[in-house]
User: Fold these one by one.
Assistant:
Number 1:
Amino acid sequence: MAVDHAAAEVDHLAAERAAARFDVEAMKIAWAGSRHAVDVADRMARLVASDPVFRKDNRTMLSRKDLFKDTLRKAAHAWKRIVELRLTEEEASLLRQYVDQPGYVDLHWGMFVPAIKGQGTEEQQKKWLPLAYKFQIIGCYAQTELGHGSNVQGLETTATFDPMTDEFVIHSPTLTSSKWWPGGLGKASTHAVVYARLITEGKDYGIHGFIVQLRSLEDHSPLPGVTLGDIGGKFGSGAYNSMDNGVLRFDHVRIPRDQMLMRLSQVTREGKYVQSDVPKQLLYGTMVYVRQSIVADASKALSRAVCIAVRYSAIRKQFGSQDGGPETQVLNYRTQQSRLFPLLASAYAFRFVGDWLNWLYTDVTQKLEVKDYSTLQEAHACTAGLKAVTTSATADAIEECRKLCGGHGYLNSSGLPELFAVYVPACTYEGDNVVLLLQVARILMKTVSQLTSGKQPVGTMAYMGKVQHLMQSKCAVKTEAFEARALRMAVNCAQNIGQASNQEEGFYERSPDLLEAAVAHIQLIIVTKFIEKVHQDIPGHGVKEQLQNLCNVYALYTLHKHLGDFLATGSLTPKQGALANEQLGKLYAQVRPNAVALVDAFNYTDHYLGSVLGRYDGNVYPALYEEAWKDPLNETVVPEGYHEYLRPLLKQQLKLSRL
Ligand SMILES: CCCCC/C=C\C/C=C\C/C=C\C=C\C(=O)SCCNC(=O)CCNC(=O)[C@H](O)C(C)(C)COP(=O)(O)OP(=O)(O)OC[C@H]1O[C@@H](n2cnc3c(N)ncnc32)[C@H](O)[C@@H]1OP(=O)(O)O
Ligand SMILES: Cc1cc2nc3c(=O)[nH]c(=O)nc-3n(C[C@H](O)[C@H](O)[C@H](O)COP(=O)(O)OP(=O)(O)OC[C@H]3O[C@@H](n4cnc5c(N)ncnc54)[C@H](O)[C@@H]3O)c2cc1C
């Protein structure tokens, strides 16, 4: 008798859900942060999913031009719905998230507006923000140049003050000074915050921000002296190609003096440069803001990939029966679990550390308002380091999820290739991950050097104050082992640098080790924040226990993966390392019955997930089959090109065979 495999697969997810040992609705709240957050997200996700304009299943088949136009259409429609429904800021931002198509709007709200808020005076904010809020202007963030991205102080664009006319002259003196990469610049933006070297009274005062109009508000044509366009196609089909990353050159473009963002420093009518009493690093404030939001985004991208891979692994069966009986769900293979469950745990870990980072950022911002700059370094180290570690781990994890889905993971309809292509530049934008980790390492070295002077480290570096204890102790397998590993790696680096002829040379020589020390420090933060989370009062049947398991999985997996560090620094013994690995295997067995419910708790609609493999109903095979027929190649039975290229070839073979 023919078995209806498709019906059996659907049953499988129902059975998986029934087997879960915790309250999924309560876990949704733990994941989202509150009942309110679940409800708003749910409403916005459904609003987007039910609107045909927001359709995205055909995205990978569109040409670049059509994809860009589709992005403009979606952005305009989203704005229309936001205005019509009078959505709050929270709702509007969630709606944009669920539209799930990178576009100029991200940079307008994500960087242009924050740059003006952070670096503009009150007067400048009053003038520019209402225009931006109503989309009467569209803005982007033009910092990176063709020749310089990571090295912000090396930017070449100039803004020279002309006291005769009370204007700045913005100029691109070389090809390498062309602005290159800014999202939204290529085709959509009318304005940009441009970073340029301020020159007044013949002196170069370094990099400052300026608001520059680029295109006419009448017909969108570039203003005189402005050359701009798109920089070209990017990695993957669909994916980040919806974004118009742009190139921009200035030929002596004049802007009024009051378009220099003057909160941090000013140029007077006479051309005098006046430095405010705020640290100059606040110029980098927009990047700090975006880096913290990128950490929150990491958990979103990772949880999407993991949701697809877990559901599909519960559906997919291979081997296990020699006599025609049911095969084994691939989720039951120990190897599948040991590859997949640490990623599931990481999604939760990044979510909670992202929430904490958001709290830290808000706290630092409030302190800055009352001129307390004491936590600026902590904010920089945590945002830079967490951005680097979470984005690298997430990019690797999405690719691992693709492999976990076997051949079907390679199909666009699995959603994983596009997710990877959209996500992977996160390792580069807002600061190349290596460059950011070296920033963390510099701060670690500074902290170690201050230990002898008796200065007590604070915040996430406070553990370094326990130097006497941590350098000597034999650690149990818990936070202390992570603290000892991070501290000992940092101290080793500091000692080695100390032996070099000078500090800079030593830092340069030891930079590969410094990277690893920075990663160890950041992983300690992630583990600590996860532990703090599970120590909170978490309502709901079994929810706390599940989070405790995932926290242990994250910590023990990290330990297992970096066992070399723990052993080399003597933070653990080989026996402890082996025991930790044993324990990890046992934890996977506890996660297994809850895996599907743990990804259900992310509460993603099928629209947002965009994957036939990750469908909520588990009806994978009919969906895959149906999806294939939608490909443009299947519009005709006989392919275009048959008459030109296939038929002559086949006929020729026929003639040859008759010879
Ligand atoms: C909510 C919506 C969000 C929307 C967006 C969401 C997702 C993103 C989506 C898509 C991407 C879209 C856009 C992408 C945009 C971009 O990529 S914008 C360009 C980003 N560019 C970079 O990140 C450049 C990286 N480089 C730098 O940040 C600096 O050049 C670097 C820090 C590497 C070096 O700085 P520099 O001044 O040359 O020298 P030092 O290393 O000596 O530092 C001097 C001191 O300043 C401290 N410091 C450095 N940075 C900061 C900071 N950000 N905050 C506070 N302090 C900082 C540093 O520790 C030194 O301190 P000491 O003097 O030692 O005490
Ligand atoms: C999709 C995307 C969107 C972007 N959007 C914007 C935007 O809206 N606005 C904007 O201004 N910019 C934007 N950027 C630019 C982005 O911020 C830069 O690409 C990024 O900061 C990295 O700089 P870079 O390209 O100069 O890399 P490079 O610094 O040239 O990196 C090349 C290699 O050199 C290494 N390296 C560099 N410096 C060091 C060092 N000191 N020590 C050791 N190794 C080093 C790096 O690790 C890397 O391996 C975007 C980029 C991308 C990919």
Note: Residues 107, 141-144, 149-150, 181-183, 240, 245, 425, 428-429, 431-432, 434-435, 438 surround flavin-adenine dinucleotide (ligand 2) (CB under 6 Å).
Number 2:
Amino acid sequence: MTTISDQTTTLPADHPKVAFGKTGLLLVNLGTPDAPDTRSVRRYLKEFLSDRRVVEIPSIVWQPILRGIILNTRPRKSAEAYSLVWTEEGSPLAVHTRDQAHALQKRLGEGVMVDWAMRYGNPSVASRINRLKDAGCERILVAPLYPQFSGATTASVHDAVFDAVAAMRWHPALRFLPPYHDDDAYIAALKDSVEAGLASLDFEPDAIIASFHGMPQRTLELGDPYHCHCQKTARLLSEAMGRELTIAFQSRFGPAKWLEPATDTILESLPGQGKKNVAIFAPGFSSDCLETCEELAIRGEEQFTEAGGEKFAYIPCLNASEGSINMLETLIRREMSGWI
Ligand SMILES: C=CC1=C(C)c2cc3[nH]c(cc4nc(cc5[nH]c(cc1n2)c(C)c5CCC(=O)O)C(CCC(=O)O)=C4C)c(C)c3C=C
Ligand SMILES: [Fe+2]
Ligand SMILES: [Fe+2]
């Protein structure tokens, strides 16, 4: 009789085929359109901005605004911005996330199957969780690539994973990478990256700005830890570097009050305070993306120089640099303890 076997038993030949015995790692980032055109951006924004974790306004009020106004105006403007930063390989966010996954696959070896997904757009979380499970991953560590926890980002990745397994009969064991905003390995990786960036400049900045993605002020009042996590990252990094950092929050969306101070306000006010040379970096983004390549590196420089600033430098995110992969490998091996 032909048989297939697992570690303990021999199964009859007519038993359904099952793959088993593997461990998976799924990196997840926010998501990005498939192409820098209005249609693709509209599809992506519709999914993203319909997430109740992202816009916490009752659907009955929000959906008419989203569908009637925002999806008719923003996609064209955003597509223009995306086209300024799009690379031959695709959206910077997707390219860096893919490169991080490939680098981690090399570090972790054949014992771990590494894949990556996007919370909104492609490749979807469900498609990648299913792929890992079908390939025999009985254990999966999901790593939302957000150092600072927020409901809009980290918790939303958790939701997508729970939704994916809700449709499965046989669940893999799941673990989630916790926020790492105050982890020594993360602070050290940021310190090395920012110090290397500063050392490469032909000027001494009068101010160094740590720009985090913003959130509505109300989320802080409702108990979201994001603001505190950002403050702690900036404090620990400033202490490690022995230099003052100016914290700011970028990418305001909609009319509600967002966390302050706003990055654009800071950039516009510094020249008037005699601070005419700045360096800016984005410690909350694990990869460069629209918000860093266009909003900070392009528009941020314009805002600063129009306000009388002279020298401006944008220091890139950790991306798939060696320091970044060292840090992620440390965090991931720790969370996979007992599995590998
Ligand atoms: C790093 C953490 C992020 C938090 C927190 C976050 C909250 C948040 N974002 C929006 C609205 C938009 N964000 C957009 C882009 C975007 N946001 C993040 C990360 C966080 N967002 C990233 C990495 C990106 C870049 C995506 C890319 O493709 O490169 C956009 C879309 C771009 C645009 O049209 O300008 C919007 C809109 C809200 C409302 C929010 C918190 C409630
Ligand atoms: Fe965002
Ligand atoms: Fe933006």
Note: The domain at 184-315 is CATH 3.40.50.1400 (Rossmann fold).
Number 3:
Amino acid sequence: MSSKSKVLLVGSGGVGTIASYALEYAGKTTVTSVLRSDYDRVMEKGFSINSCDYGNGLVFKPTNVVNSVEASKVFGPFDFVVVATKCLPEVTNMIDVIAPAITIDTAIVLIQNGIGIETEALAKFPKNVILSGVSMIGSANMDGHIEHESPDMLRVGYFNNQNITQSHQEAVSRKFVGIYQNDKNECVYDEDVKFSRWRKLVYNACLNPVCALTGVDIGRLEIWGGVDSIIRKAMREVLAIAKSDGVILSEDVIEFMIRSDDPVYYRPSMLVDAEKQNLLEIEVILGNPVRIARKNEVNVPYLTIIYELLRIVQSRTMEEKGMIEIPKERPVPK
Ligand SMILES: NC(=O)C1=CN([C@@H]2O[C@H](COP(=O)(O)OP(=O)(O)OC[C@H]3O[C@@H](n4cnc5c(N)ncnc54)[C@H](OP(=O)(O)O)[C@@H]3O)[C@@H](O)[C@H]2O)C=CC1
Ligand SMILES: CC(C)(CO)C(=O)C(=O)O
């Protein structure tokens, strides 16, 4: 009998593939990975990886590779199910997708950006531990090739579940930290998930969407004036919403986030998605914060306009993908 932990990974993109590599590299886990578009390629050749942490020219196949959650069950039961897809709850409920692999002892680990990403998991699995993974990494998947450009730093803690003791939720969080951390990455226990998520949002709610909307990386955005004219102001609005939600972030975080990619012409994940014509994580990165601002009567004009522009871009992508249709005849006021 193996004493290794069993992890199911759903969402093997830039973040998820490096997560599965980190877990296997640390040697305390067997990873089963659910792949969709990369399944045939990875079964045949594995992922190819260039990684700033682990080296270039790597070929990697997780211990088990399957093409559906249902098919993963023969390799369970799982201690952890890691979700590292883009978080699009308005389009796909990932908690329904992973449900067949969840037992009462499974902890669900959401390594995704945004605010309010835990709602579905807590509602559907009120007796399970739900973990938050806040990832600082720069990594992208291009057809089974992973370009991992900035070091993997992961903070793991729990989204508080009133039905479970805090000491147990902390122990499960620390167990995941223990199987993830290795001599090449940085993984720490996060004692204040709410704070970490609002702090990270200072970057994601501002730089991600403005780069996605303009089609430029952060270096070009700064050279051409966008950081001064838009980003700093939008970041200040994130600080104001966080404050209204009980989280005090220091002003220094603004310069910290703006400088965090120096000296790289960095392309945030939402810009990568816009270029691939993928759907964008607009609701968890902007919609939820803007709704909290409305509820708490915080004035956020920059974030509101960024959100409304993104909603239109998202509808355009949905129409292109055949997910929505517009009326044949343009509706006009009577
Ligand atoms: N990339 C980055 O540098 C960073 C990203 N993040 C956050 O991490 C999360 C993951 O981002 P990222 O790695 O960039 O995402 P990617 O778009 O690179 O990868 C997402 C993966 O999820 C897969 N997927 C989607 N739905 C399913 C499903 N139902 N079953 C199985 N696989 C599925 C996709 O497969 P398919 O090809 O079949 O669609 C794809 O491989 C996001 O929340 C992002 O904001 C956080 C920090 C940095
Ligand atoms: C902050 C950053 C750039 C890296 O962790 C990110 O979250 C993203 O690209 O979406």
Note: The CA atoms of residues 219 and 265 lie 5 Å apart.
Number 4:
Amino acid sequence: MASEPVTGTSLQVLRRLDSGPRGLTDAEAAARLAAHGDNVPPRPHTPSVLRRALRGLREPFTAVLLTLGLVSAFVASWGTATVILALVAVSCALRATGERRADRSLAALRELVAGTATVLRRTDDNAVPRAHEVPVTDLVPGDVVRLGPGDLVPADVRLLRSRGLTVRQDALTGESAPVPKAAADLPEPDTDSCLCFQGSAVVAGSATAVVVATGPHTRYAAAGRTPQPREPSAFDRSVHGIAWALVRFMLLTPPLVLMAGAAVRGRGLETLPFAVSVAVGLTPEMLPVIVTTCLARSAALLARTRRVVVRRLPALHDLGAIDVLCVDKTGTLTLDRPVVARSLGPDGRDDPEVLRWAAVSAWWTLQLTELPAPDALDEALLDLAEAVGEQYDGIAALPVAPGRRLATAVVAGRLGHHLLITKGAAEDVLERCELSATERQRLLALAAREAATGHRVLAVATADRPSRTRPYTPADERALAFRGLVTFHDELAPGAAESLRTLTDLGVQVHILTGDHPATATRVCRELGLDPAETRTAPTDSDEARSGAGTRGGGAGPFPGGGTVVVARCTPEDKARVVSGLRAAGHTVGFLGDGVNDVAALLAADVGIAPRAAAAVARESADVVLAEKDLTAIGHAVTAGRRSSANIAAYLRVTLSSNLGNVLAMLAAGLLLPFLPMLPVQVLAQNLCFDAAQLAFAHDRPAPVELRRPTVLRPPAFLRFITGFGMLNAVADLATFGVLALALDGPDALDDQAVFHSAWFTENLLTQALVMLLLRDGRRLARGGRPGPVGWAAALLAAVGLAVPPSPLGAALGMTALPPAYHLLLAAVLGLYALALTVAKVRRGV
Ligand SMILES: Nc1ncnc2c1ncn2[C@@H]1O[C@H](COP(=O)(O)OP(=O)(O)OP(=O)(O)O)[C@@H](O)[C@H]1O
């Protein structure tokens, strides 16, 4: 970062930057942009395809394959070694190019939701400065920017003025606790506390600041930090679990084959290439390629058709797996464009004076805190009674902050007096009013009645105090006189009701977590077509202190199995706690929220989702951003996640059942026969054909029935499935072996090895094609649906199985043409196998 401009007083800093408190002119800003370049951090170093390919070697399957290839080379089995190393190279290259394509399309998508900053600019030297929203990339050194809650600091800035500013600078320091920052006008200021750095998030307060460094010169860019990777998703963990179970099995295979061969047939180390190729046959080596392709395709399709931006690719799997979605209310289910509905006095009758006090409070809070934009409730008040605040002199303001549900403005009152005007959540304001317990209860009930109409409610109170110079703090918000209530109407967001209905149909349970009044939230929930099973109020610190509870529940007690729960009056921590509680109870949880008070929950969830209009910091914390206002995109995103997970699960199901079956049959046949059931190079060639066909799974459309429930992959159930179907496959293989043996008068009479090898090669590829069709989605096929990419790939695989043995390639691989009678026998075995597979599928309810 440019180090010298940040020391000295604010004025010295502004002078050095050739700027002033009124900001730059448009012409000067344009000239500086041309000179300094866009305010974008240097692009993170994108690894080359070669580097990515080499990184692919660290994948467990690829590493094991490589080891097996090296072992084959070591025993001079060059054919086996060459085919295995070719497999490794193809898998690494496909994965690397897929990853690069995914990265490129993601970078383009991120620009759809790029941020803006509020900057003071003038048309010429004499013009009045105006606040503009400009793309963050257009900021230049010397620009004067405004910061408010929820903003991301757009560049390195020196604070000129600040009010109660706290920021999180974990992007830079890794420390997530908010740190206070304040402007200082000293010649030798503590620079760190009067500087804010690019990438920090404003938690509370506001500031006006001058940009001192942009683009590659910021501290963030200099630190070259990359965001911390999130812990792997439930789906990733399951895939990983299955992968490691297989890797262990694979490593056991060669020694087992060697030992069994030695014990039963007295074979020696010459069986090693065969043992190695059997282990290779077990590997789903295309898994990384298929995962990357499925995710990248789904993300690109979502962005193109639904304008949904997936910022972290694996989050798509989480989306597919969520069974609970927690939603914030204001700004997500409603538009957060409140309009004043009523202004009523303590007796419940209309009283315009209450609105007037609320508007004075809003005006001075806005003026004194210099927020870049007023909060929506304040904006609604000012829309109705804009000029009223100017009739007073503002003294101080205590704005709302995360966890603080009221705001106070202090203005000059009658001579020698200050007037405190407080507005906020009814419970919080009434708690600070001088009232009898019965009167407080009556007023709380009045507020609840208004809230039950679905309106948002603010209570207003005032206090007359002798004037003073000592600063005001929240401790001064006491002994207030209650003035009345102002209520607001906030429209439902477009598509909100429909998207909640879709989510329910998709088997996702929806809960609403809001900072608002329980009655308002319950009513909104009903208007959206959800009948809440329960409404809770998150306990306040004082509640908990009274009950002596050791750990805070935040309304996160057990949630009923069905139905929506509304948790109202949540602080940001309460929202995060509910989400973590649901995750701990075994749910996969999504969180949809738009505000600075949602950031903790967005980060705590398996997948955080933010609408486009969300605060910058919420968008930055989310994994998925909806670029359109319409919430119905969520349902499509969930379905896209399920689709890509279903494709990966189908691939795993098919490939593992089939591979396991082949390996078991090969092991058994290896022991029964006087020769190897297949040559190592044949095993590998067959494996290569199957792998190529399997790539079709990345392009498949799973049956609608597979998309109706969250996609969860449970390794134990999954391993049971592949063992069951693997056995069935082994039986089919051995039946072919039996047929061949019978036709040729017993195993030891099988002297034509080439015929045997060719027969088994063809049978293997045909059974694999059958498994691809039947274990993926037999029902659709049975209904006469179109074959789709997997259907075509299976047909091609079967054709290769029939065409290779009589071809010159077959001859090169040691195969020969098969007698026509064999094809008839094969058709009978395959027919029986298809029947057995279908029966097993129906019995298992797959
Ligand atoms: N400008 C304001 N002045 C006074 N009180 C406010 C103001 N803004 C919000 N509040 C009070 O603070 C409460 C909590 O606000 P918060 O922003 O946490 O949640 P919310 O916007 O009501 O709901 P959600 O969590 O669904 O976004 C509000 O319900 C309101 O009572």
Note: The two ends are 60 Å apart (CA to CA).
